[in-house]
Amino acid sequence: MLVDYIRRIVPLSSARLLDMPDDRTFPSYTTAAVKLDGGLIRPLSPNASVSRDSITHVIEGIGLPPRALPSTRGTGLRLWSSLARKCCALALFLTGSIASAQIYKFRVYGTEDGLRNLAVLCMIQDHDGYVWAGTLNGLYRYDGDRFERMGAEHGFLESQIVSLAVTPDGSVWAGTSSGLAVFREHAFEAVHFAEPATLESQSSLAVDPATDALWVATKEGLASIQLSSYRRGPPKAVFASFAPHAIISAVSFGADGSIWFGSGGRLFQYEPQSGVLTRFDSSDGVPNDVWEAILSDGEGQLWARSSTRLISLRKGEKRFHADRLPPGEFGALALQQNGNVTIPTVQGLAIRDRNDWKILGIQSGLPMDSKR
Description:
mainly beta; Methylamine Dehydrogenase, Chain H; 2 domains; four-stranded antiparallel sheet; globular
């Protein structure tokens, strides 16, 4: 469910569980999509509503507890972040018995909502529910009503934001073409690298699920930041000795906790427990390409994406397999709440459904087809 000319996609992360306010309105991070009105869930775009009896999966899909709401099997509602060259959208779509025709509803956000730059490169949702959007010219924070540009008054002077991440302590990290900054105590603070560091892909930041450390893919190598150390002073990034001193195109974590990264047209896997670094190249099913996104799905299958190729490594296997999908303007991967992979392409959004792909285009409710 992405708008045309898709550049990047980042799924909204599960927000911290919050109590529903007395005015029967969802917290700020959901009011952009839905409001509870007289027992009905209503998209802010004035289209169909669904009954209160059908919103258990709605709640779960956007990170809220179901509370005492009754369950309705086969229904669902999800909130997506949609990124486009000429517009930014938060997509609300209904599935199952609510919308058996598989037509999805969208609301597009633009300059009238405070988003003054529409070339959105990355998005993330923090623990307080704010949605952050990094663009070619500015970083914006959405509070459920309007976008606010984060500038000098917040200690942030950078313009081109290429990657965003949230660590378990609630800090928001913004990667730029000239370094990395962290937002804490209502202001940004620059991260210190031993040498100037440049981030250039949406998948430049990844959180270690075992240690909560933040790993950073830069043009100068692979670095990490230990959260326990930066609480005692200015944040410092340390380059990893096991990774090459070269351009790292993406970093992520496998289901087994191993670190995966792309460099020099190849993929690498580092196992922290054993200290073993394994290289995957054409002999292992990895063509020489710029692997801009790496992701592990809900079944433990590892995916890697360039602008033209998609490969995957099934759990327990040693060789990657190629999937045939239309190219994308950039290599990008995202994960649904159910653990399935979604991929933006020039023909629409590809959704992994069991062992097959379904591409959603204008016939499924997208504002426009992707054309190139």
